[in-house]
Amino acid sequence: RKENFDSIPDLEFNPIRGKIVHAFFDKRNLRQASDGLVDEINFEDFLTIMSYFRPIEMNMDEEQLDRFRKEKLKFLFHMYDSDHDGKITLQEYRTVVEELLSGNPHLEKESARSIADGAMMEAASICVGQMGPDQVYEGITFEDFLKMWQGIDIETKMHVRFLNMETIAHCY
Q1: Which of 36, 39, 130, 172 has the smallest CB count inside 10 Å?
Q2: Helix, strand, coil shares of the chain as percentages rounded to 5?
Q3: Which range is least confidently modeled, 18-27, 116-125, 130-139?
């Protein structure tokens, strides 16, 4: 249950703690066909979510690495797409940026909003190109999200490494 995550010390001070916990209960991340949330997860569901954070394996070929990368990015995309409509809107992105920067006492909410607005304009220029004055960028789709993350090493940054028994055996 969500309240069980309250006792995880490393999440306590994370500014996007709510989004991380929410992601554990998002049916899309549990690889279920529908969207929405579940009230509780079992051990298998927990492992499914943790699989998004596994490190890359050295023997992966290009196709496996590409699929692995897309799975991680899909997980992140779902964290930002809080209304489950398949787009990260300006308002959703503003919320994430404000949460991420909430711990900085020198940064006002309006500054965080300006940062989010600028990033969304950059996303539009990357994904749509030059827009006309009457055109509106409705939000970042998953395909746009993939373009934006191109060249960024998400595979090695978004992982949790656990000790294995071989590591412990070498310590003696």
Answers
A1: 172
A2: 55, 0, 40
A3: 130-139
CA distance 168 to 160: 17
Q: How many CB atoms lie within 10 A of CB 79?
A: 18
- Cα(80)–Cα(89) distance, integer angstroms: 9
Tell me how far apart the alpha carbons of residues 78 and 86 are, in angstroms, rounded to a whole number. Answer: 8
Q: In whole angstroms, how far apart are CA 136 and each of 92, 145, 161?
A: 16, 17, 42
- What SS3 state is found at 80? helix
- Span 45-78, pLDDT tens digits: 999 998 888 877 888 888 988 888 899 899 999 9
Residue type for 62, please? E
> Which tens digits make up the pLDDT trace of 87-96?
998 899 889 8
Backbone phi and psi for residue 158, each to the nearest 5 degrees, phi listed first? -100, 75
Delineate the domains of the chain, giving CATH numbers in brackets: 2-156 (1.10.238.10)
